[in-house]
Amino acid sequence: MESRKLRIAVIAGGYTGEHDVSLKSAENILDAMDQRIFDPYLIVWSESKKATDRGATLHYKGKLYPVDLNRFSVQLEEGELTFDYAFIVIHGSPGEDGKLQGYLDIMGIPYNTGGVLAQAITFHKQKLKELVKSFGILVPRGVEVARDQEAHFADNFIKSPSFPLPLFVKPCQGGSSIATTKVTKWEQLSSSLKQATAEDLEGVALLEEMIQGTEVTCGAIRLNGKSRLLAITEVVPKGAEFFDFEAKYSGSTDEITPARIPQEYADEIASITLRLGDIIQLEGLYRADFIIDAQGTPYLLEVNTVPGMTSESFIPKQIKAAACTLPEVLSEIILKGYSAK
To answer: Terminus-to-terminus CA distance in the chain, angstroms?
Structure first.
């Protein structure tokens, strides 16, 4: 008797500004998944930020079906559809901050990322930096600013700045550089903080020191406690002051793999990236972003635990650079995760 193919819920969407990018990642994942052993289904999480409006919808054969979140199942004409595994490609909340992982834990569905705690820590930029700093990993200086405190904080910071211009303002929990501003004049500070707190789900902005240098991103995969490196990519925005949303998704960036850095720098970046997986207990694909200063010292900027998976994203290209294919890596992640449940 032929064994049944695993039913995979590819969960995309979410209620942050990365909703549409997530859908593009899901499209690439669905195309790459080996349908000889998997039956993949696209589930789109609502983009509404109102708790009462949140839900999920199955996109199946040109029709939309509501997902019963009490059972994580869908009622089709031919019967109830249940799932064996969830492949999360929601960039931002609820897929990258631990909320969806907690729900799937309750439902008993294995998935492709770290657990609730690992996801929550990595999604909060400042809390992540505080954690890894205690392990000797260097990070830029930063300060959190709460909603409704922006103008008061800006006035006080301008009088006695902890670090000089230029600096960055960004949502404390967010991605794709949405609502991120490179502040070059003090007059920009208050409005930039307000923009960042408005985007952040908890209304917290991060004011961060800018370190001049070479930006690189290092991809890795960690499965059942064992990590391996993919590749290190150098990021060179063309015509942009930094690697902002437009530079990320308009193709106006040179992405050079492997990065043009001395081998000793590459070795240190690789070592830190693999250590991060162990420190935080990451799982699946992840990416660590760094700035290497003029002295060759790397500073960790952030860790992406649900990295972009579009055809133009870093991770698919780094998988190729590591002499692997995306279908092979997806199969490895799903089969190991499913067997470990």
So the answer is: 24
150, containing H or E segment? helix 150-159
Confirm or reject CATH 3.30.1490.20 for domain 142-209, answering yes or no: yes
Class of domain 6-113: alpha beta
Angstrom distances, CA of residue 269 to CA of 218, 258, 289: 7, 12, 9
* pLDDT of amino acid 237: 80
Nearest Cα residue to 14 out of 89, 106, 94, 74: 94
> What separation in angstroms does the CA of 74 have from each of 65, 101, 253?
7, 19, 41
Q: Where are the domains of the chain?
A: 6-113, 121-138+212-305, 142-209
- Per-residue pLDDT tens over the stretch 175-232: 657 789 999 999 999 999 999 998 888 899 999 999 999 999 999 999 999 999 999 9
Architecture of domain 121-138+212-305: 2-Layer Sandwich (3.30)
Below-70 pLDDT ranges, the chain: 1-2, 48-53, 175-176, 239-252
Structural tokens at position 326: 């995306």
| Angle (nearest 5°) at CA 175 between 250 and 154 | 110
